[in-house]
Amino acid sequence: MNDKKRKIEDMSIWEDAQLMLAKAERDGVETAWDRLGQQTPHCRFGETGVCCRICTMGPCRISKKAPLGVCGADADVIVARNFGRFLAGGAAGHSDHGRDCIEAFHAVAYGETRDYGITDQAKMVRIAQELGIATEDRDAMDIARDLADEMFESFGSRREEVAFVHRVPEVQRKRWKELGIMPRGVDREITEMMHRTHMGCDNDAANTLLHGARMSLADGWAGSMIATELSDILFGTPAPHMSRVNLGVLKADQVNILVHGHNPIVSEKILEAVQEPDLTALAKEKGAAGINLAGLCCTGNELMMRKGIPMAGNHLMTELALVTGAVELIVVDYQCIMPSLVQVGSCYHTRMVTTADKARFTGAEHVKFEMHNGMEQARKVVRMAIERFPLRNPDRVDIPSEPVELMTGFSNEALLEAMGGSPAPLIDAIKAGKMRGAVGIVGCNNPKYQHDYCNLNLVKELIKKDILVIVTGCVTTAAGKGGLLVPGAAEHAGPGLMEICGALGIPPVLHMGSCVDNARILQLGALLANELGVAISDLPLAASSPEWYSEKAATIGTYAVASGIFTHLGHPPNITGSEIVTGLALKGLDELVGACFCIESDPFRATELIDERIRMKREALGLEP
Question: Which end of the chain is least crowded, N or C, by CB within 10 Å?
Answer without folding.
Answer: N
